[in-house]
């Protein structure tokens, strides 16, 4: 199946140039507070919030817990985050496109969609929350689940990044 960028690459690059020009113009019109907010977005989104989420897990880093990654609970979590989420996202997207309910966005390939599906496995914060509710009062099970979530999320982030980096088209 052809993606939209391959069908009309000039339109894709033209709209991208226009988007970049509009962004540059809007930066010149923004207030100092807006520029500060924009400048802090990256460090907050990629450092502060993940660090905050990690600190709220109450996970004691005990490397002996890594041996528990072969237990059924841990394997289920790893399978759900690293396989279940990407398969579900890609499969539902494929069905939606085939049925005509949706189309891939301009410039997006199926390989990139797989990369995004893998990134969805980062579900760190909500997974920890569900773990705390599901295994209330069972600290051993909570810690086993937390280490599986941590390893899966880290793996999903690295693998998703690598897939998207490999399958993205360079700009200029």
TrEMBL record:
Has UniProt tagged this entry with the keyword Transmembrane?
A: yes
Upper lineage: Bacteria, Pseudomonadati, Bacteroidota, Cytophagia, Cytophagales
The source's domain of life comes to Bacteria
What are the subcellular locations of this protein? Cell inner membrane
Membrane topology label: Multi-pass membrane protein
**Which keywords appear in this protein's UniProt record, sorted alphabetically?**
Cell membrane, Membrane, Transmembrane, Transmembrane helix
Q: Where mainly located?
A: membrane
PANTHER family (alphabetical):
NA(+)_H(+) ANTIPORTER NHAA, SODIUM ION/PROTON ANTIPORTER NHAA-RELATED
Is the keyword Transmembrane helix in the record? yes
Any transmembrane segments, and where? 40-61, 73-96, 116-135, 147-164
The terms under GO molecular function for this entry are:
sodium:proton antiporter activity
Output the GO biological process annotations, alphabetical, semicolon-separated. Answer: regulation of pH
Show the GO cellular component annotation of the record: plasma membrane
Q: What is the name attached to this protein's record?
A: Na+/H+ antiporter NhaA
């Amino acid at each position: 199946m052809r993606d939209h960028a391959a069908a009309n690459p000039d339109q894709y690059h033209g709209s991208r140039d226009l988007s970049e020009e509009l962004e540059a113009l809007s930066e010149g019109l923004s207030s100092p507070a807006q520029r500060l907010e924009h400048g802090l977005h990256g460090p907050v989104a990629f450092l502060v919030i993940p660090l905050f989420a990690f600190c709220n897990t109450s996970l004691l880093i005990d490397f002996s817990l890594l041996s528990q990654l072969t237990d059924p609970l841990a394997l289920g979590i790893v399978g759900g985050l690293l396989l279940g989420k990407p398969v579900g996202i890609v499969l539902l997207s494929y069905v939606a496109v085939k049925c005509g309910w949706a189309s891939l966005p301009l410039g997006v390939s199926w390989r990139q969609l797989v990369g995004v599906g893998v990134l969805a496995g980062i579900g760190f914060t909500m997974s920890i929350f569900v773990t705390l509710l599901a295994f209330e009062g069972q600290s051993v099970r909570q810690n086993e689940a937390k280490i599986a979530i941590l390893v899966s999320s880290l793996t999903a982030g690295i693998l998703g990044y690598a897939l998207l980096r490999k399958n993205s088209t360079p700009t200029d």
